[in-house]
Design goal:
7 strands; GMP Synthetase, Chain A, domain 3; extended; Ribosomal protein S3 C-terminal domain; 2 domains; 26% strand; alpha+beta
Length: 225
């Protein structure tokens, strides 16, 4: 029974994410977060251009809220719009942009490398881009581009890796685009820090003994003078 509830909640979240992706495409949709509160459901929507969502006198955001109520997806939804400070470090937004480049006729390798370079240039610790589908020819294939540090599994991957997914619609078929980004300043536990000081306990003791002997000799010389 509990598993069924989790599945239903996951389906609702996917449907709501697709709805926002289609409705807020021009505003630079970059993902959402859902949080349950005693007063209802708070939906935090991340966009590049918040003014396009709020609209004049908040009319558009009210229309979005009414549409979600009409769909009966969530109870008493409250939409909070948050701006994206650095668009190149938002995985969903970059996945959408990469999909649009492919739809416009860019070669998938050129579009992928350009997107990867833009993300790394903004200071990302790592980035991985996966494109799959009918990239070249009638048969489907996959292309992967990786640079920097990427964590694929474990609880730390859920904390530091931002994921985004989009679909590029071509005449030959659809192409799935997956973007993973590790933002700068992320707490990465398994990276060796080059500025770590390696302590040699035996060497330190010898240096302390030598310094003590030099200090005694200096005091003895001063006493003779």
């Amino acid at each position: 029974m509990i598993e069924k509830i989790y599945v239903e909640e996951g389906i609702k979240k996917v449907r709501l994410n697709e709805y926002f992706r289609n409705e807020l495409e021009r505003a630079g949709y970059g993902g959402m977060e859902i949080k349950r509160t005693p007063m209802g459901t708070q939906i935090t929507v991340k966009v590049e251009k918040p003014g396009m969502i709020i609209g004049k006198d908040g009319r558009r955001i009210k229309r979005l809220t009414d549409e979600i109520l009409h769909r009966q997806e969530l109870d008493n939804p409250q939409i909070d719009v948050q701006p994206i400070e650095v668009p190149e470090l938002n995985a969903q937004l970059m996945a959408n942009r990469l999909a649009k480049l492919i739809e416009r006729g860019w070669h998938f390798r050129r579009a992928g490398r350009s997107t990867l370079q833009r993300i790394i240039d903004r200071g990302a610790l790592g980035c991985e881009i996966i494109m799959s589908g009918k990239l070249k020819g009638p048969r489907g294939r996959m292309e992967k581009m990786v640079e920097g540090y990427i964590k694929h599994c474990g609880s730390i991957a859920e904390e530091i890796v931002d994921r985004g997914y989009a679909i590029a619609k071509k005449k030959a078929g659809v192409i799935g685009v997956l973007v993973w980004i590790v933002a700068p300043g992320s707490n990465v536990p398994d990276i060796f820090r080059m500025n770590v000081k390696v302590v040699d306990e035996k060497g330190e003791k010898e240096e302390e003994k030598k310094a003590t002997e030099e200090e005694k000799e200096r005091k003895a010389n001063n006493g003779h003078i």
